[in-house]
Model the fold of this input.
Amino acid sequence: MTELDTRPAPARTDVDDLVRPDRVSGAVYTDPEVFELEMQRIFREGWVYVGHESEVPEPGDYVTRRIGREPVILVRSKDGEVRVLANRCSHRGNRLCNAEKGNSSTFRCPYHGWTFTNAGDLVGVPMRQGYAERFLAVREELGLAPAPRMDSYGGFVFASLTAEGISLREHLGSATGAIDRLLALSPTGTLDLRAGWMKHRMRCNWKMVMENNVDGYHALFTHQSVYDAVRPAKVSHVPTKVEVYVRDLGDGHSEIDYAAEYTRLDDEFVWFGRAPREKLPKYVAAMEEAHGPEATHKAFVVGPPHTLIFPNLFLAEMNIMTVEPLGPGETIAYTTPALIPGQDEMNERMLRRTEGAMGPAGFLIADDGEIGMRNQFGLAAREPEWIQLSRGIETDIEDETGIVNHDKSAETPQRGWWKHWSSVLNGRAPGAVSGSTGEERA
Ligand code: FES
Ligand SMILES: [Fe+2]
Done:
């Protein structure tokens, strides 16, 4: 009689079966094995956005976050260094810090009271006489584990839970240009992400939330109520009438780029409800003082980026979005306005606009959450297997900025996302650390 084979099933690495240049299988959103593979290859081994330096300006400031499913603390330690530490007590694994944010010189575990400095060193073990000498010898190794890799760009802090791999700059590739474009709107070249995070629990896959942000096709339909209520120009969604481009920036990053259209119009603040300069005199003066009149005019015309940075950061013009995947069909989306330090008149307007778009009674994100949920419902039907992503494939143009399509409703960003996603999951992407079957196939 053959013995039962009790070995676990091998993880599916053959995601190439799920992704074609013009379509993907619905399983990419629903399959628990795919989700597990993403947690490993994307969220453990790759670079993941964690938080912003402005959220922890003073020594002792911290916020708690998750990288994939793993809890971390982003903290400015007493030496002024920003650190990403495992939010896990080194005694028996309790989640150490349970507040969303705060300021503290130490973290004390709620279970047995072990205490760590805000740099992660273990400094307090209650009733330590109960431990043998052997423990005392290894005690200094029991600090909070720092993320093996951590780096930042423009104040945006990223970390990786694996020591080896490409640098953050390599990961970001040309997406650094989008961060620069946002920072160009600040007189100090810095942002303030402390307005508070809006949280939306979405009953859909995290990739649906991210990809939809660079879908230039859905607005007239999913957001029809906006057009019915506030009547913005529908013409801005007719591809032949506007110069709004979609772009696959490579490395999974992509965008909807309004720069050409705004430059053609040469009007300032079209992206900001066409607010006239006179309404923002202090901001205009601070910008001109910092950057000169020409660069200021250009920044005001071109406006902020609408750029998705793989895997979990979306520069939503003057908002920032990140996602926390909870499972194949459940995600928390976090959004906050990108405030400009010291510019109250600007920030006041920004808060109102953010409430209108992203707030609980807002226009945009509620629609997107609902459509995401319905997408997940639809995908429960396993046939037909494929989701169509061929829109604009014949009109994509490759240039020095990436793969561009002059029709904003083209699915160029989605094709770029999936190409990169499959190469990361198969260990083929540059800097991927996992053993791979992808090489043999390539
Ligand atoms: S688990 Fe933290 S002190 Fe015991
Ligand atoms: Fe939308």
